[in-house]
Amino acid sequence: MARLLLLVLPLLPASLPASPIPDQCRALLLAVPDGWNSRHTTLQLYRRDSASAPWVSKNSPIPVNLGRRGLAWGRGLHPAQPGLQKREGDGKSPAGAFLLGNILYGYDQTSPIPGWRYRQVTDRDLWIEEPSSPLYNRHLILSAHEPFPADHHYHLMRQADPAHALKLFIRHNAQPDIQPGAGSAIFFHLCRENDAVTTGCTSMEGPAFRTLLASFLPKDEPVYVLVPRAEYSRLKASWKLP
User: Fold this and answer.
1) Quick one: which of 167, 90, 185, 171 has its CA closest to 128?
2) 151: burial class by Cβ within 10 Å (0-12, 13-18, 19+)?
3) What's this model's pTM, rounded to 2 decimal places?
C-alpha cells in the first residue's frame, strides 16, 4: 500500500498559488481589456459577503479609458509578472491588482460622495512625479509661502481641467514599497470626452464615476484588477476572480 501511495501522490495536481486579493476585500473593480495595446475597456463592480463567498456583479459595465499607449505590468498586490513593466512617463496604465486610496480629491468644497474622507485640493496640492525625490509618488501640500519644488516633475492636483475635479488614487507603486521610476500619480478620474485616453490613469464619465464611488466604501477594502483578456484567463483561477 505504501508503495502504491508513492506512485500516486506525484500525479496529484499542484495547489494553486494564493490569490493576491486580501480575504477582507468585499468590493472588486474588474476591467479586462482585449490586449496590451487597448486604450478603452469596461469596468464592472463585484461584491462578496466573505472570503469564501462568490463574487456577485453589482452594476452594468462602465466604459472607461486607459493609457494612450495601452498597458504594462504595475506594482501592487500581485507578485511580479514577466513582460513589459510600467515606467514613469510611458503613457501606459498599470496592469495587476491594486488597493485603492481612502481619500477622494476634488474641487468642490464638500465631498460629493457620503462616507468618504475628502480633500478639497488647491493650487498648493501637488503629487510628486520626480523619481529622484524622497517624496516620489506622494501627495505634497505646500504652505501659503512655500516655493514649488525646483527641478521637480509634479502633478498639480487642481488645474483648469474638469477631468481632475474628482479623483481617487490607485495604489500602484505606493507606500511602503515605492520604486523610483516605476510610475506615479495613477488615479481614477473623470474623462474629458467619451473616448479620451489618459497618461496612465483610468477615466470615466462623471455620473458613472459618482455612482461607482457610492457603491462601496474604504471599509470594504476595495481592489482594482486591470489585466488583458489573455492574462485574465491565465490568472482567473489562482486569483479567484469572477
Assistant:
1) 185
2) exposed
3) 0.92
